[in-house]
Amino acid sequence: MHLTLHNYWRSSASYRIRIALALKELPYEYIGVSIQTGIDAQHEEAYRKLNPQARVPTLQANGQVLTQSMAILEWLDEVVPNPPLLPTDAFERAQVRALAQIIVADIQPLQNIAVTRHLATIGLDNKVITDWVKHWITRGLRVFEHQLTHATPGVFCHRDSPSLADICLIPQCYAARRFGVDLESFPTLLAIEQHCLAQDAFKHAAPENQPDAEVPI
Fold it and tell me: Which of 113, 152, 104, 135 is nearest to 8 (CA)?
């Protein structure tokens, strides 16, 4: 299977896919798509033909095009089932998906570059925008931390192997620090993060280890 990942090194959604590909030991061609203000490669005609939404990531698999990180993750888990990203038990699968959706549906969209740029166009300054984003990240992670206490215990979000929840959590922790969020009040979350970041797959997928990585502005 030939895989090509169009992504941006610092994009949370792109980071999720890199983690999953590394966990499943799937080689892929890496194509950087800079969404940095002033470059905006995601809006170029050639890329929009691949992904009309003009967002990252986009995964090409044997010529077929997949978009939206959660759809890509679920597809990867179906076509390459080992190691699995979801538990075999239906209730536990729902628990893992719920944790992932706290981040994917409730937190990340509110920090998305398209949203923060729009807030700037309606007159909000950088400090107000940053405070707004920090509020929603902190609120969401507080819920995530609480939900972890009801999940099946282990060194990861669910038991003792990485799941869809960990794949979503680690990029969110990275983004939270970029916006200046203090994570010290989330000890369970931090313990899981520490364990994840010790794994080779998570190290390989880290933003700073990507070929298009830049010095953060």
Answer: 113
Q: Which amino acid is at 22?
A: A
Helix (H, G, I), strand (E, B) or coil at 23: helix
Q: Are strands 29-32 and 3-7 parallel, antiparallel or unpaired?
A: parallel
Q: Is the CATH number of domain 3-83 3.40.30.10?
A: yes
Residues contacting 142, CB < 8 A, separation 6+: 185, 186
Tell me the mean pLDDT in the region 153-176. Answer: 95
Q: Find all residues with CB under 8 Å of 31, minimum gap 6, and list them.
A: 4, 5, 6, 7
pLDDT for 217 beyond 50: no
Amino acid at 110: L
Predicted local confidence at residue 171, as pLDDT: 98
Per DSSP, the three-state class of 36 is coil
SS3 (DSSP) at 31: strand
* The CATH number, out of the four listed (1.10.1200.10, 3.40.50.1980, 1.20.1050.10, 3.30.230.70), of the domain defined by the range 90-202: 1.20.1050.10
Q: How many CB atoms lie within 10 A of CB 130?
A: 17
In Å, what is the CA distance from 209 to each residue of 51, 195, 204? Answer: 25, 18, 6
Structure tokens at 193: 């993060």
The answer, yes or no, to whether residue 140 has pLDDT greater than 50, is: yes
C-alpha 68, offset from chain centre: 11
The predicted-structure confidence for 92-113, as pLDDT tens digits, reads as follows: 999 999 999 999 999 999 999 8
Token pair of 185, please? 């009040």
